C-alpha cells in the first residue's frame, strides 16, 4: 500500500486540488497523488497511451 507521506506532490496535477490518500500511484519510483481515483486513472491511461505509441514508432507498426 502506498503512503501519502511519501507522495512527491501536494496537489493533483490535473485539477490542482489537494491529494487524496485513496488516489496514489507509483510513477518512475515515486509516489504521485491525485485528488480522486478518476484523475489517477486518467493519468495511468495517458501513460499507457504514450507507451503504446512509442512501441509502435519503435517497431514501425501502425
Q: How would you characterize the overall build of this protein?
A:
The chain has one helix at 37-59; strands at 24-27, 30-33. The chain is α+β, with helices and mostly antiparallel strands. The chain has a two-stranded antiparallel ribbon with strand order 1-2. A hairpin with a 2-residue loop joins strand 1 and strand 2. The mean pLDDT is 93.
In short:
This protein has one helix spanning 37-59, and strands spanning 24-27, 30-33.
Question: Which series of helices and strands comes N to C?
Answer: EEH
Number of H/I helices: 1
The secondary-structure class comes to alpha+beta
For the termini, the CA-CA separation is 37 Å
How are the strands of the biggest sheet laid out side by side?
1-2
The main sheet comes to:
2 strands, antiparallel
Shape: elongated
Q: Count all strands and give the number.
A: 2
The residue-averaged pLDDT reads 93
Features:
single chain, 62 residues, alpha+beta, two-stranded antiparallel ribbon
Helix-strand layout with pairing:
Elements: E1 24-27, E2 30-33, H1 37-59
Antiparallel strand pairs: 1-2
Amino acid at each position: 500500500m502506498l503512503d501519502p507521506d511519501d507522495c512527491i506532490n501536494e496537489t493533483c496535477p490535473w485539477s490542482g486540488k489537494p491529494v487524496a490518500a485513496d488516489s496514489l500511484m507509483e510513477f518512475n519510483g515515486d509516489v504521485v497523488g491525485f485528488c480522486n481515483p478518476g484523475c489517477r486513472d486518467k493519468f495511468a491511461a495517458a501513460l499507457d497511451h504514450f507507451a503504446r505509441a512509442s512501441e509502435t514508432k519503435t517497431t514501425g507498426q501502425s
